[in-house]
Amino acid sequence: MAISSFLSVRKRPIVVVVAVTLFIFLSSLFLFFSPGPSALPFFSSSSSHLSSQVSIPVSSNASSPETPTSVASNGGSSSTSADRVSADASPPGTGTAIASDAVSNSTADPPRPDATAAAGDAEADVAQPDHGMPPAATEASGSAGNGDTAAGVSSERDEEGQGGGGAVEEPVELPSWELCKVGNGVEAADYIPCLDNVKAINALKSRRHMEHRERHCPTEPIPRCLVPLPERYRRPVPWPRSRDMIWYNNVPHPKLVEYKKDQNWVRKSGNYFVFPGGGTQFKNGVTAYIRFIEQILPNIQWGIHTRTVLDVGCGVASFGGYLLDRNVITMSFAPKDEHEAQIQFSLERGIPAFLAVIGTQKLPFPDNSFDVIHCARCRVHWYADGGKPLLELNRVLRPGGYYIWSATPVYRKDPRDVDDWNAVVALTKSICWRTVVKSRDSNKIGVVIYQKPTSNSCYLERKNNEPPLCSESDRSRFPWYKPLDSCLFPAVPSSGGGSSWPISWPERLNMKHSTTSNNSSIQFPQEKNDSDTNYWKDLVSEVYLNEFAVNWSSVRNVMDMNAGFGGFAASIIDLPLWVMNVVPVDQPDTLHIIFNRGLIGVYHDWCESFNTYPRTYDLLHMSYLLGPLTKRCHIIEVAAEIDRVLRPGRWFVLQDTIDVIRKMDPVLRSLHYKTTIVKHQFLVATKGFWHPGSTGSNS
Question: What is the top-level taxon of the source organism (predicted)?
Fold first, then answer.
């Protein structure tokens, strides 16, 4: 009995030792086979990134984009799983993020100008957080602080649990972001580097031909700064109500209210700007004006025969805004001039618009692009310098297209107006434009409509070869920083040939297109265009609209920064948004195909600032461009321009290789963007309200 008791007592420490040993052994096995230390709560840290494997159905036809760029053929990961790695927009020490759409500290919402507003319109008044994150997304906090260096998402893991994605890239030195320092007379919140270069503008020898309104980009140092928000800025009024009203504090420029008070351009009502739909030549409303044009020219067939329009000197773009009701897409443009913020008003309304001027350089559009060109008191002297401004319109107007001119020389008999009218009559006759109709509306406002010829026969029959016909070498000059021509572009390249009009909209979107650019000798197989269309259709429907942390109902203004054939824009044509298709100047020229499809776009060099105001786009999309782009300019400069153009609370989507994504991700997080990597080839980044000196990303 005593011996048994003794043995039981002696066994107790042995049992304890065995139990402890077994626990240590099992814990070691668990640690060895776990995906990482962050799997255990006692190994977690504030900088850990979590990775989850989420299955995403992707069509087998959407393996890689068929774009004209050689980079695009590299495609991306063909994995059928989506690896999402999220980084919180708020670095450590910035405090708790506030779910608010507004910078304003006010506690009361501003009154509405219309007392009968529906309850469903509350999104325009009350700051609401976006709800675009799909339920499958897994997030973890992390950031790249200012002044740090980062090579990318270092803790991202591939399906085997190892750091993947190719060779280790050189780390990007992250800047200490600062607000831009602008010149005298420039509003910091409206800063456009290539249009507000005060030093270069002051050095101009002449301003006679609007040289001071043209691009003068800074050279050294190139801006790597951020544009501040206007005081009390908040997310824009949603479309379609934004066409008629916008927040005053988002574009706090009241000069046009007084300057154009008799023309119904814009009015101030409480905390809103309200747009009645008037204009200099259509004081009683743009709807009646559009209907009047259709009455005197039935062949115009808005939205069927006529799809793309260029509106010169557009004001606040009400003409283009109301043509959207007719399935017409209008490129409205005007300079940044004394008509304070007219293009900013237009884009805040959700209407396509662009800053440009007909001065000494060509417009950034291909030859024979637009179905219709419109000018209502646009203040351009068309016959100046031998008619160069009108010759530029002739270059971008499609053969058979119409030029609609509504201005005082059309209907007034003052000596100056008569002289202007006679000069335009002589010039239009010399370039073979046919006068289709000249008429007055019920308010005695006159309109004249010209048509560009569809063949070269008229040019060859002219008694005087003035202006002279351009040579084929002139025709091939790319319209980027090129002077206006003093010669006349024929309707078609070969003498005596004809020109066909695109088929009716919407069939035009998927028509067989001309594969040779007028501004380039590059040819594109039709099969490549078709493949590109199918690729984007599948990818957008299966991934973009379902898997991205983007609230598409909040997206109105979209820019495709490397548009290719316009396949991305075509794939979202049925959404209530519009797309500015940008063809970079160092990529193959496909912009003529985009216009032939009934879409709009421009040429641009992304090593320079874009001709738009800050905070004007809801979604920026870049596909396989950043790699070659950063061989010419620094990734920090590209990121600064993206931040300038993008609205707070909105999205930047980058499709590229994982190495390129890993370079861009920490840069965007240093700007307090919230980032998510999808399928090893997409970076979806949400811009916050942070700026240098603020306390948080959403403050």
Answer: Eukaryota
